[in-house]
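Key result, reporting period 2: structure in, sequence out.
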């Protein structure tokens, strides 16, 4: 259940990034972090996989912000 939920949130987050909807993506990022942390605690995700998912989400968000500033 938790794994399906985290995959769904992750997909929704990156769909928002692709559409360049920054405000909504920032809101989802907070929820995405909570879901990833919960999955890590319950041993659904390994620690290194969880940290890679978080960093990928941050990098995507920062890349879009830099692109908008340019």
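The corresponding designed sequence is given below.
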């Amino acid at each position: 259940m938790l794994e399906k939920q985290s995959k769904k949130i992750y997909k929704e987050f990156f769909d928002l990034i692709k559409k360049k909807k920054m405000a909504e993506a920032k809101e989802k990022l907070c929820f995405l972090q909570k879901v990833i942390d919960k999955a890590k605690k319950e041993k659904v995700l390994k620690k290194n996989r969880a940290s890679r998912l978080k960093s990928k989400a941050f990098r995507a968000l920062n890349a879009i912000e830099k692109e908008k500033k340019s």
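The chain has one domain: 2-69. The helical segments are 2-18, 22-41, 47-69. This case is discussed further under Risks and Mitigation.
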